[in-house]
Amino acid sequence: MAKQVRSLTVLGRVVLTGQIRAVTGLHIGTSKEALEIGGLDMPVVRNPANRRPYIPGSSLKGKMRSLWEKVLGKNFSTRLKDDPDPAKQVWIHTCDDPRCDVCAIYGTTGDTMKEAPTRLVVRDIPLDPDSLPETVVDYTEVKWEAAIDRVTSAASPRQMERVPAGAVFQPMELVYTIYTVSDVERFAHVLTALSLVQDDYLGGQGSRGSGKVAFENLTLTLKAGRDYQEHTDDRFQGRSLADLLSAQKEVVAWIREHVQPVGGA
């Protein structure tokens, strides 16, 4: 029996950079390290080196994936988090179909056969401290909420920490790797997923007003070919997300122009 030969070639990468602006207060939570008297019930995630809040790449990528799965009507076949409480279990879609756009772009679990590695990498996005006024203490605000007992009308207050509206997180960087010709067409789905997030919310408490964001000042840089570093093109600069969405066909044609399969096939 002939030995099966498997290979993978990076045809190019599209780097999407820009910034995220919090249109409303943004809460991306973390677990409390210790129970403190008078402490916040729901703190935000922070960089331990400088105490500044940031947006984890996993939070943005996970939200993009979740919304795209729902748009495509994918079945949630893999449980990532097991919990006796069904409401706390986490399910995602994974499969062995090489044609599946969700698995190709966002990846699968380690025990699932897949055609190629994850196409999309999303970096952590730091807070730009200069985007906040000096009156904001420790980069955040405290929002009070109260759950009302429907029978007794008793209020149960709690504190939630948020990054205030108007805060800007930058630089944002998404790196999309192209392994096959079909990956060129798939890049348009990344832009659509960002639009879905913008129309939904990022982080927690979105149904109660938090987490509306806007993706702004976007630039696409293409690195392609065997020269890679020398062969770059950043034709789309300083665009809004709406601009890139309306130019999807132009963007895909631009990528296809530069990315050629090995041997020209």
User: How many separate helices?
Assistant: 5
Outline, from the CA principal axes?
Answer: globular
* Rg calc: 21 Å
Helix content: 10-25%
Residue fraction in strands? 25-35%
What's the mean pLDDT score?
Answer: 84
The tally of domains stands at: 1
Poorly predicted regions = 34-38
Helix-strand makeup class: alpha+beta
Distance, first to last CA:
27 Å
SSE string, helix = H, strand = E? EEHEEHEEEEEHEEHH
> How many β-strand runs?
11
Q: Report on the biggest sheet.
A: 7 strands, antiparallel
Folded structure, characterized:
- This protein has 265 residues and is an alpha+beta fold.
- The chain has one domain.
- 22% of the residues lie in helices and 28% in strands.
- The chain contains five helices and eleven strands, in the order ββαββαβββββαββαα.
- The strands form three sheets. Strands 1, 2, 5, 6, 9, 10 and 11 form a seven-stranded antiparallel sheet that branches. The protein has a two-stranded antiparallel sheet with strand order 3-4. Strands 7-8 form a two-stranded antiparallel sheet.
- The radius of gyration is 21 Å and the shape is globular.
- The chain starts with 11 loop residues before the first strand and ends in a 7-residue tail after the last helix.
- About 2% of the residues have low confidence.
Write the layout of secondary structure elements.
Blueprint: E1 12-22, E2 54-55, H1 57-72, E3 78-81, E4 90-92, H2 101-106, E5 120-122, E6 125-128, E7 141-148, E8 155-162, E9 168-178, H3 181-199, E10 213-224, E11 232-239, H4 241-246, H5 248-258
Antiparallel strand pairs: 1-9, 1-10, 2-6, 3-4, 5-9, 6-9, 7-8, 10-11
